[in-house]
Specification:
By secondary structure, this protein is α+β, with helices and mostly antiparallel strands. It has four domains: 208 residues, no CATH class; 167 residues, no CATH class; 152 residues, no CATH class; 112 residues, Glycoprotein, Type 4 Pilin, CATH 3.30.700. It is 22% helix and 19% strand. It contains 16 helices and 32 strands. The strands form eleven sheets. The chain has a six-stranded antiparallel beta sheet with strand order 2-1-3-4-5-6. It is rod-shaped and about 205 Å long. The termini are far apart. InterPro entries: N_methyl_site, Pilin-like. This is Prepilin-type N-terminal cleavage/methylation domain-containing protein. It holds the Pfam family N_methyl. It comes from Clostridium aceticum.
Length: 893
């Protein structure tokens, strides 16, 4: 193809010669056009990446301020970290001014905060001066809680910019000497020591109020580098100004870090749970409409004691100083809600330490876990750095912060700060305040040193901080005392009256003779019930009896009102066995308090037993005590107990029954002779007195065991026909349950049956003895000499002889006579009998008649006194009492 107007030769030469000027111009035009298209596209791609990077920078700053986003605890409350967690506020925004001499930005942290974009949160990477410096303003933060840095010191990402910008300052003394555009460009691009975006331009921070609270805006001027900041008092509006359209903004809203509503609600829930642990659930009533009390108060009958925690530096924990006086004004905690203290009675404890034997907790979980363990670690590190390695080594502010924030083992609020407990009033009028210091952690407690004992919800300090945001729940007396008191006094008085009846019987009880009938324990035993205290000896814990009649304030338990006593007079139990084990087995009142028993003597010299309920407060010897007394004159007449008179009568009856067992009943036959029966009448001799151990297994007493135990080998005409008395458990006893004594004088053939009386001591020869005795003399069951006269008739024939034997003593003793036939003037033949016998045992005696080898036995009766014996089996006889016999001596009482 040939170009128009050129020969072939010419065209070839042209091709060999290169591009023409026109061609070059055309090519350059095309390339310029393409470059104009490509360069903006590359710039756009670069801005997109820088935008992403700037978003990442803002998110990192956000994390430094409030911690990792969207992390929540088990209660659903967002976990706050970073600067806000430690300082409890957004970082202050301070403006920097240029130091042209040193070529650095210098922070004006002693000035007011600049919140409209020209300040930066310098506290994220560098600690400011602590609050208290005279150079600082009142609202400067207290950096004692600062645990940063939270960000690395900000460096200029494009250091070559720094050199170019510094060239503009040549010949200039101050930044204000530059023209406004150059100054603005310098402030935006010189970012060494300032937070900047991905373009190397300074970031802007604005604080502004919202309906839910202050928020923090972090702003990059974006790809254009243009931004219009709000005037003081105005809000930033991204859409209002065209220059702000490409700004990159990240807002930290108030609710993201403050969580006031959630933490307040959670703290109220914590306090309500503690309230439930103390007095039980609300709005629970019995059938009478009386509020049912539960929790600690139900068991312990009082509000929990508040004890001050003491720091244990070896164990790195809080210990409880429970042996000191209660700390009522804010410094103590109710440790008894989750852990029982030592039991009442320990000599090292204060008098008002509660008796934890009634404790049925825990009523709340042990507050072991610190909700903010990182705080704990940092606080411990600070403590270790202190000079003395203990709390006193810290200054007052640090010590207060340690006590408030180190809450492992203490009750705390949703902000992880220790709760405060204050008691107001006294006794039954005591109120308990449970307080959280609230969001600001500030609280002003009453100062007892100036007579201030009441918490003031409106109290503020000179800085304007104080109790305004405190969260308070109050347990009033009508919530814990009055509902428990309704009906409890009457119920407790009935318990006391029941105890009185168990000890002494009914007040109005009289016997058939119109005499006061003493019953219960005293009626049976004849003495005050012994009082015992629990000795918690490690090897051998047991009940120990108090010494008698020391009349000191010694309170004990009458354990033998329900425990079986070895004394046979004990006929209990007199009350239902109380619940509990060992030292916890106590008689209790309607409030579940221990009932106290004390034996004392009044000014009139009367001994009395006082039974006391400590009342609603559970403390003995206070004004709400309820008690009744039992005086000795209610069961004694002079030095003799009223029931002892009856026991004397009963003992006489017992001794008479024993005497009757020996002699038989006091009865007479038709001829007026006393009938001798019982053991002596049947066996004809004293029983064997055998040593028998009493139920204590220690003491032995001589007892007539043959009265209830079969005895063989008495001899013809004598036979054991017992038992003559009921077999005893161990030994024969009187009405006091004391062993009956037997004294046999074999020379005088006399037996004395003795009761030691009320004191149980046998001493008949003593002038002041109260012994009761009965006697059995020989003359009551033997006669000295008797004559047996009679005739034995035989109508068929007269035997040559008849042998007559009278078995008048045991063990083969007999008298024999041989008779010869005779004739009666009025009848057939007879044999006359005339038999004289000495020392004859009275009773049914065996008369043996032998007629020509044939034996016949006849029982004849030999009595005491009388005249003529009736005829029996044609044997006539009478017994003549010797003239020298005398009546037995009178019996003593």
């Amino acid at each position: 193809m040939l170009l128009k107007g050129m020969t072939e030769k010419t065209q070839k030469n042209y091709m060999k010669g290169g591009f023409t000027l026109l061609e070059i111009i055309v090519v350059l035009s095309i390339m310029s056009f393409l470059a104009a298209m490509i360069v903006p596209f590359i710039g756009h791609m670069n801005n997109t990446q820088k935008t992403k990077d700037t978003h990442e920078i803002l998110r990192n700053i956000r994390t430094a301020i409030i911690g990792t986003p969207n992390v929540f605890d088990s209660e659903g409350i967002r976990i706050i970290g970073g600067y806000v967690k430690d300082m409890d506020a957004f970082p202050k925004l301070y403006e920097a001014e240029w130091d042209n001499t040193n070529k650095v930005w210098k922070w004006k942290d002693d000035d007011e905060e600049v919140v409209n974009g020209r300040g930066q949160p310098r506290g994220l990477w560098e600690e400011g001066r602590s609050l208290g410096s005279t150079d600082l303003t009142e609202d400067a933060p207290d950096y004692s809680s600062w645990k940063g840095p939270y960000l690395y010191y900000p460096k200029d990402p494009y250091p070559e910019n720094t050199k170019e910008l510094e060239k503009q300052l040549k010949g200039v003394d101050e930044l204000d000497d530059l023209d406004p555009d150059d100054k603005g460009r310098f402030e935006q691009r010189y970012v060494e020591g300032k937070l900047s975006d991905a373009w190397g331009r300074v970031l802007y921070f604005i604080k502004q109020d919202t309906a839910e609270g202050p928020s923090l805006l972090m702003i990059s001027a974006g790809p254009s580098g243009k931004i219009v900041l709000p005037d003081p008092g105005e809000k930033y509006n991204q859409n209002a100004d065209k220059e702000n359209e490409d700004n990159i903004v990240l807002e930290i809203k108030h609710r993201e870090w403050y969580n006031l509503a959630q933490r307040t609600e959670a703290t109220y829930e914590i306090l309500e749970n503690i309230r439930t642990a103390i007095i039980g659930p609300q709005n629970v009533y019995d059938r009478e409409g009386i509020r049912v009390i539960g929790g600690y108060v139900r068991d312990m009958n009082t509000l929990p004691k508040l004890y001050e925690p003491i720091w244990n530096k070896e164990g790195l924990r809080w210990d409880w100083d429970e042996d000191k006086e209660e700390v009522e004004i804010g410094k103590g905690q109710p440790r008894g809600l989750w852990e029982a203290g030592l039991s009442l009675g320990d000599p090292d404890l204060a008098e008002d330490v509660p008796d934890y034997s009634r404790w049925l907790g825990p009523y709340i979980d042990y507050p072991r876990e610190d909700p903010f363990p990182d705080d704990t670690k940092n606080l411990l590190e600070e403590l270790k750095k202190s000079a003395l390695d203990r709390l006193d080594g810290l200054d007052e502010e640090d010590k207060k912060r340690f006590q408030q924030r180190h809450v492992g083992g203490k009750l705390s609020d949703a902000w992880g700060e220790a709760l405060y407990f204050i008691k107001e009033g006294s006794g039954n009028e005591t109120s308990l305040l449970m307080i959280s210091a609230g969001a600001d952690g500030e609280i002003i407690l009453p100062d007892p040193s100036i007579g201030d004992t009441h918490y003031d919800k409106d109290a503020v300090n000179p800085e304007g901080k104080g109790n305004k945001d405190n969260i308070v729940i109050k347990i009033t007396p009508n919530e814990w005392y009055e509902p428990r008191n309704i009906g409890k006094e009457e119920e407790t008085m009935e318990i006391l009256q029941e105890l009185r009846r168990a000890i002494i019987g009914r007040v109005d009880a009289i016997d058939a003779m119109g005499r006061k009938n003493v019953g219960g324990y005293i009626g049976d035993i004849g003495d005050w019930p012994k009082l015992y205290y629990w000795d918690d000896d490690f090897d051998d814990p047991s009940w120990i009896e108090f010494l008698e009649n020391d009349y000191e304030e010694l309170y004990g338990q009458p354990i033998y009102l329900w425990k079986k006593k070895t004394d046979p007079l004990w006929k209990g139990p007199y009350i239902t066995e109380p619940w509990g084990i060992g030292g916890n087995q106590l008689i209790r009142d309607a409030w579940n308090n221990e009932i106290y028993f004390e034996i004392d003597r009044n000014s009139d010299g009367n001994e009395y037993l006082r039974i006391t309920s400590p009342g609603i407060d559970g403390n003995i010897d206070t004004e709400d005590d309820l008690y009744i007394d039992i005086f000795d004159y209610e069961w004694k007449s002079g030095d003799i107990a009223m029931m002892d008179k009856k026991k004397i009568e009963d003992t006489i009856k017992i001794l008479e029954r024993v005497r009757e067992a020996f002699l038989g009943a006091d009865a007479f036959d038709a001829s007026g002779r006393r009938i001798v029966g019982g053991y002596l009448g049947d066996m004809g001799d004293w029983p064997t007195f055998t040593n028998i151990s009493s139920s204590d297994g220690i003491t032995e007493y001589q007892q007539p065991q043959d009265l209830w135990k079969i005895k063989e080998g008495a001899g013809q005409g004598f036979e054991w026909r017992g038992p003559y008395i009921q077999k005893p458990i161990d030994v024969l006893r009187d009405a006091w349950g004391k062993p009956i004594h037997f004294e046999l004088n074999e020379n005088e053939n006399r037996l004395i049956i003795i009761s030691g009386g009320a004191d149980g001591k046998v001493d008949l020869d003593a002038d002041d003895n109260d012994d009761i005795a009965r006697y059995i003399d020989k003359s009551e069951w033997k006669v000295g000499t008797i004559t047996v006269r009679g005739n034995i008739y035989n109508e068929s024939y007269d035997p040559k002889e008849i042998t007559v034997k009278l078995h008048h003593k045991p063990k083969g003793s007999k008298e024999k006579v041989i008779t010869v036939p005779g004739r009666s003037e009025t009848g057939p033949g007879y044999h006359g009998i005339n038999l004289q016998v000495e020392d004859v045992v009275c009773g049914k005696r065996n008369f043996e008649i032998i007629i020509e080898g044939e034996k016949r036995e006849i029982d004849i009766f030999i009595g005491i006194g009388g005249t003529q014996s009736p005829t029996k089996e044609r044997l006539n006889f009478y017994i003549k009492r010797p003239p020298d016999e005398v009546d037995p001596p009178e019996e003593d009482e």
